[in-house]
Fold:
Amino acid sequence: MFIGEYKHNLDEKGRIAIPKKFRVALAQGAVVTRGLDDCLFLYTIEEWQVLAEKLAGLPFSQANTRAFARLMLAGAMEVALDKQGRIVLPEYLRTYATLQKEATVVGLYNRLEIWDHAVWGEYTKQTEVARNEIAEQLSELGI
Amino acid sequence: MFIGEYKHNLDEKGRIAIPKKFRVALAQGAVVTRGLDDCLFLYTIEEWQVLAEKLAGLPFSQANTRAFARLMLAGAMEVALDKQGRIVLPEYLRTYATLQKEATVVGLYNRLEIWDHAVWGEYTKQTEVARNEIAEQLSELGI
DNA sequence: AAGTAAGTGGGGAATTGTGGGGAAAAAATA
DNA sequence: TATTTTTTCCCCACAATTCCCCACTTACTT
Structure:
């Protein structure tokens, strides 16, 4: 289970360290792709397989599902951890998420997200305002 | 069962002592995360597992459920008690709850909450006013 | 008033994150 | 096809953080 928030830096080669505790889970391989809200999604191979099949199942007759499939499927790239537990983020993904140096890695159960540090700060600041309303909407889930 | 109110101090390393009587319950591990009303929630591993699964089940295609999952899942961090019965609160959680030194730990049956002492004081003062009204609204729940 | 139990503070060792240099592989050009 | 250039990958070393342990202080109990 991926949870938590971690501040890591990209180096000049576009590499980023994966938090130690997640490395075993990703040792078999991982897939990074374009995510929602200007961040990157990172999945284990198995989780990615599940998601990819769902995406592939979307009707390509509709313009918006086509766009969504292209965002995530065409954006995807398989990555491997090096001996120090880092992955290389291809340039197009760094551009997409406006990643430069400071990044925040966050765990969301079955995926990791990689954010530019400043963008993540903005996002949390904005959504914190609405959190109580959202919480009330979700009360029916028993949360 | 967690009940009661305890005043503890954070030290310079961001550690806080867990009230003695709750330590056995949390010995197997605990998870702290961002809570509602500017405090932190702390669960036993088992309780957290249930909650995490509910959160993970929310569809990531909707903006507000995404935001809520990021609040609680990405906010979560597994913590362990040290030999003295303390946990370390990561910096981002201390910032979230505006925790500096004085803190109040309160028990709410299946979770603990960690508040900045002053914020907790404010909160209880404010809700005291509305308490009677709230009580009447709750009568229909059989309380 | 003394002893015990719980909370607080801090120092040192081990682990994890970061940066960079060099070798191997791949790509491009002649 | 040979040679040069670029890119990727692997490894080493430093820096920073985290974790673990020991000691002190305060508060409660008998």
About this structure: The mean pLDDT of chain A is 93.
